[in-house]
Amino acid sequence: MFLAIDIGNTNITLGVFDIKNGKLLPVPKKVWRMSTIKGQTSDEYATMMMDMFFYSGYNAKSVAHVAIASVVPSLNSVFEDLVKIYFKKKAFFVTHVNNGGLKFATSNPKETGADRIADAVAAYSLFGGGTVIIDFGTATTFDCVDLKGKYIGGAIAPGPAIAAQSLSIKTAQLPQVEMKKPSQTIGKNTVECIQSGLFFGYVGLIKELILRVKKEMKVNRVIATGGLAELISCEIKEIECICPDLTLEGIRIIWEKENKRMKKKAV
Q1: Residue 267: per-residue pLDDT
Q2: How confident is the model at residue 25 (pLDDT cuts 50, 70, 90)?
Q3: CA 260 to CA 85: how far, in whole Å?
Q4: Which residues are identified as catalytic?
């Protein structure tokens, strides 16, 4: 099996891929999620991961390779140790250098998050050029891949959860609310008012950014991923496809390409 790990600011997503006839199958056979806790040790994370494997009927010893995309630098060494101790493997990390051949047309590729690199690689592999990827995570990110497959940049906005949390923290009387689609725009109480502002406000934000992106590049397809993709995308007709495991698939594709490149280099 191949294990892909996406370390985000809010959640850590794990996906296992089967290997058949020496090749990785394209879709993860199992996906798990756990909360990102920056103070956790490698042993604590490993305990949770081993439980996930065990109770899902998978043997962790069957993992042949591990690849990671992380946007939490403080956890990189934690997971590097975890993979070395518990899986007896050396972890592969997605970076602007280890990127599966992705070409950048940005001013500073080093700034690009590993998750955004994985999303761009997966999107181009699956859908071709002229693709816009909207990732509804802790931050809402737009990533743009041009017709030639170059990553040309995008946009970043605070995610709905951050906005909801900020309202609760920075105001004396506004509560933390669940992000959901309200039945109407005009709320009848404080919770409904906040939910309306968050939901329809983000729908408007996404639509406006898509409109402006289309004025600056040729767009053949707009796809979405991330935890809130299904909730928000239902209101945005421009989003043609929801790919919940896009980042994990990108990690897989990048590892395969980099592994093949290193084998050729070694010959």
Answers
A1: 61
A2: confident
A3: 25
A4: 115
The residues near 73 (Cβ < 8 Å, ≥ 6 apart) are none
Residue whose C-alpha is closest to residue 182's, from 140, 239, 232 = 232
Computed from CA positions of residues 1, 87, 262, 105, in that sequence, does the dihedral angle turn out positive or negative?
positive
Question: Quick one: tokens of 43?
Answer: 């042993």
Q: What is the pLDDT of residue 137?
A: 87
Only one residue has tokens 């993992």, namely 63
Q: What is the distance between the alpha carbons of residues 247 and 203, in angstroms, rounded to a whole number? A: 22
SS3 of the chain: helix, strand, coil, percent, to 5: 40, 25, 35
What does pLDDT average to over the chain? 93
pLDDT at 133: 98
How far apart are the C-alpha atoms of 114 and 8, rounded to whole Å? 10
Specify whether the CB–CB gap between 104 and 116 falls below 8 A.
no
Spell out the CATH class of 2-93: alpha beta
2-93 and 103-248 in the same fold: yes
In angstroms, the CA 8 to CA 1 distance is 22
Buried residues in 129-165 as b, exposed as e (16+ CB within 10 A): bbbbbbbbbbbbbbbbbbeebbbbbbeeeebbbebbe
Name the CATH superfamily, with its identifier, for domain 103-248: ATPase, nucleotide binding domain (3.30.420.40)
Please, what's the largest Cα pairwise distance for the chain?
Answer: 69
> What's the CA gap between 61 and 57, in Å, rounded?
12
**pTM tops 0.85:** yes
- Domain positions in the chain are 2-93, 103-248
